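Minutes, project huddle
Topic: does the predicted pose make sense with pyridoxal-5'-phosphate bound?
PN asked that the exact inputs be recorded in the minutes so nobody has to dig through chat later. Recorded below.
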Amino acid sequence: MTLGDAVADAEPLGDGAPAMLRREARIDLAAVSRNVRRLRELSGTPDAMVVVKANGYGHGAVRVARAALAGGATWLGVVDIAEALALRNAGIDAPLLCWLHGADGDFGVALDARVDVGVSSAGQLRAVAAAARDRGVIGAVHIKVDTGLGRNGVVETEWRAVFEDAAAFEKEGVVRVRGVFSHLANAGADEDARQVAAFELALATAEVAGVRPDLRHLASTAGAVRVPESRYDMVRLGIGVYGLSPFDDATSADLGLTPALTLVGGVVSVKRVPAGTGVSYGYSYRTTSEANLALVSLGYADGIPRLASNRAPVSINGRRYTVTGRIAMDQFVVDMGADTCEVGDDVVLFGDPETGVPSADEWADAAETINYEIVTRLGGRIERRYVS
Ligand SMILES: *Cc1c(COP(=O)(O)O)cnc(C)c1O
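Predicted holo structure (tokens), as shared on screen:
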């Protein structure tokens, strides 16, 4: 498979040196826009935040952000202030939230860049208020409450105190509580319902303290699609935007989504070997008959999981094969049996299965992980090419 003429431009990830070997992530930005539109239809909320943390789940945060906004996203979400600034520096001025901060989180920088700050403690709230007071601005915050995920977010015993502090800062004119939010553990319907109930309690606590957020948000892709009670004013859409399913029991196609990323390596050699030939380190694979072995220009340094050795599928010239032998740092081998191919041919590891190539889900199964990890782990030597 080749996307050939459709390739618009390339964004090298490493030091900008020209790629000598084919290691390409071909990213369909029109699919990103379509997926956003589709997820907005499914969830029906007034607002939709598209999450572009971790460099847009490996797809390129800036390009994905623009495509998402074109598809109807009204907010963008990232993890930390540095990721938020990278978007602002690229000229993106859509509403933007970041929600994970270390001990030295520089909230003043966030306020200067008009980035809303997700706060998970009284201390973070105070720090935003102090930075805003210094600057003579109003710091926009979204208070994150822990409703049962056990990660960040204000714990229930402190909800009242934090909302009362927030109300006082609002009165002083240094803070505006634009949002109250939380995150689901995706631990099943009962747990979802318990978290929704806890979120209701947090909102009631805010109300009593006099805090009235414009945006109550709880759902990520899974909740947006399957837990209507979790949708509130805005959903935070991540994996679905990239065209991947958060569910074990539904594919991308089942959800009406198109995987945006196609991972492509190149054939760097083809050779005919006799039966019984050991392949790659440790000889975890031996040919069972005379065979053609294709060598592919991707390895675990590129984020190809070594655990998928002898398991994961690839597609070469429209036919499927299995990775054979141990995946090495820079390369792996495919036993093509009686078939053959040419040096320079594309090898598709995963992409949109509707086009006949393997899926990121198949790679996730082969590597005993989830599709999220398969796309976000792609390494620094991979070149991203954007399909217009
Ligand atoms: C990553 C993240 C999301 C997006 O989750 P998906 O499952 O990828 O849709 C939403 N909200 C928060 C707080 C996140 O960290």
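Observations noted during the meeting:
- The radius of gyration is 24 Å.
- The CA atoms of residues 181 and 217 lie 5 Å apart.
No decisions taken; revisit at the next huddle.
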